[in-house]
């Protein structure tokens, strides 16, 4: 019997309204977009400011209680921050008994291609985007904090945590804050494929078709050649790092190229 794919509830604040055919509420899809995004944009409301705040932050989905949980399982989002950062102070102030925590919204976006059409109106991007909505709490358990820091560190480079000087010193632990976000809902929106001009007159205009190039320019992040630091004493780049870098570059290029064929 097949296992049913878990999905986030389509709340009024998380539902995709425009281009609903591009929406995806599956946990695995949303968590995959978030975990592969180097920087997340986190928004929250500071009561002392007339405007919502938006911060670029590092984060990863995971489960401290079930470390082996997959992307399709119910997960928390862990965010790395500084102990006296504004968002941390707001979370700390909201951490009262029976409190849901600080409401925040998290956005993750990957740009996969520039879609060039006959008219500016029909230009677009190939992209994968995800939104998560939840409530943030401060992680106070040392074990859970170490779990989250290892999770986030290894998202930068696989196994990087174990290759460095660990564990963190008491001073490092004290100055670092980790937020756990309990997710209430989320959604993804994905566009792939080539240009889609909708005006039949343009598509029948031979002069226009012969003058304007249409198609997709794939976009992907390339990890460049590593440059040693000023006090580096290790000769050469570790084989594991170089292998991962080349594989990651190949996967990124392949993904952006395949996205052109989809849709």
UniProtKB/TrEMBL annotation:
Top-level taxon: Eukaryota
Bias-annotated ranges (Basic and acidic residues) = 240-251
Q: Which residues form the signal peptide?
A: none
Task: Give the start-end ranges of region Disordered.
Answer: 239-263
Q: Name one Pfam family in it.
A: Pyridox_ox_2
InterPro entries for this protein? Pyridox_Oxase-rel (IPR024747), Split_barrel_FMN-bd (IPR012349)
Q: What is this protein called?
A: Flavin-nucleotide-binding protein
Q: Which organism is it from?
A: Humicola insolens (Soft-rot fungus)
Mind giving the lineage of the organism this protein is from?
Eukaryota, Fungi, Dikarya, Ascomycota, Pezizomycotina
